[in-house]
Q: What sequence folds into this?
């Protein structure tokens, strides 16, 4: 067990500001966000398209740097790390799940799951991997290639890969965005299960109230600010909270994510 899981938060940002671009076209994607993600929990970051969810996740996970403020993984200040150390921290202490499954098509399921461990030249923890394969239900698919699997199965491989190196935190950005509601529900149940059964922390970005309802708690972003927090969410309560943003968000002049044209779509899945 690491210090990150012993202290209260596995990851946090303090007074996080992120500005993209400069001058007239500058976009303030994060506008002074302070939030901690509690160890051993499944937390959803929720908010309308363009509210800064992905930016927050990328900065908390060391994929991008803040303009102002600080990001910590456990007790590690990410801004104090050079590129090489940041790369190692991401490899050794963080797992990722993205909307596009990002599996390597020429490798089997088993090889995809252990890819980053193999690249690191590390010795895989067989017992851990074995338990993980059961959690994600892929034992009879280990020698298949991604193209032979459904979307839901591919994302389950990506979840197993994210947990394979025993990371402190797994970050997931819209992990069910490419899945139908049934396999999406399975992947979400799995993320929660994996967090609880392994004691790992999961932080998921979503704009879908049904997805957010699988988390232990939800933090809400609007226009780059943290505006609310909810324990034991249900889809209805999350949806109600989101409706309150709609008026304000629709007046925002900032560009929005063209790949996500509507924030209503989550309600129907
Ligand atoms: N690389 C970038 N360059 C310029 N603007 C960006 C970039 N990434 C995100 N933005 C802008 O920052 C804001 C927040 O984006 P994002 O974090 O992707 O929001 P969300 O994930 O909630 O949809 C949006 O206005 C978006 O257009
Ligand atoms: Mg996003």
A:
């Amino acid at each position: 067990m690491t210090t990150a899981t012993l202290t209260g938060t596995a990851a946090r940002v303090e007074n996080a500001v992120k500005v993209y671009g400069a001058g007239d076209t500058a976009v303030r994607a994060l506008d002074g966000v302070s939030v901690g993600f509690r160890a051993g929990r499944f937390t959803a970051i929720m908010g309308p398209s363009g509210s800064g969810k992905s930016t927050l996740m990328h900065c908390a996970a060391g994929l991008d740097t803040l303009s102002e403020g600080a990001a910590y993984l456990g007790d590690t200040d990410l801004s104090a790390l050079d590129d090489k150390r940041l790369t190692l921290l991401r490899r050794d202490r963080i797992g990722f799940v993205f909307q596009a499954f990002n599996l390597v098509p020429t490798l089997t399921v088993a090889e995809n799951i252990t890819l980053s461990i193999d690249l690191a030249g590390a010795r895989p923890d067989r017992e851990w991997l074995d338990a993980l394969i059961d959690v994600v239900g892929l034992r009879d698919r280990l020698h298949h290639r991604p193209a032979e699997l459904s979307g839901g199965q591919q994302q389950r491989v990506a979840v197993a890969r994210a947990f394979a190196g025993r990371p402190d935190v797994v970050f997931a950005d819209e992990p069910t965005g490419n899945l139908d509601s049934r396999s999406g529900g399975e992947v979400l149940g799995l993320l929660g299960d994996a967090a609880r059964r392994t004691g790992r922390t999961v932080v998921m970005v979503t704009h879908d109230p049904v997805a957010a309802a699988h988390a232990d708690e939800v933090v809400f972003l609007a226009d780059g600010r943290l505006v609310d927090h909810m324990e034991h969410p249900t889809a209805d309560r999350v949806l109600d909270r989101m409706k309150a943003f709609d008026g304000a968000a629709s007046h925002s002049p900032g560009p929005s994510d063209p790949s996500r044209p509507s924030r209503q779509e989550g309600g129907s899945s």
In short: Residues 29 and 55 are 7 Å apart (CA to CA). The first strand starts at residue 9 and ends at 20. The beta strands are 9-20, 27-38, 42-46, 68-73, 76-77, 94-97, 169-173, 201-206, 217-222, 225-231. The two ends are 37 Å apart (CA to CA).
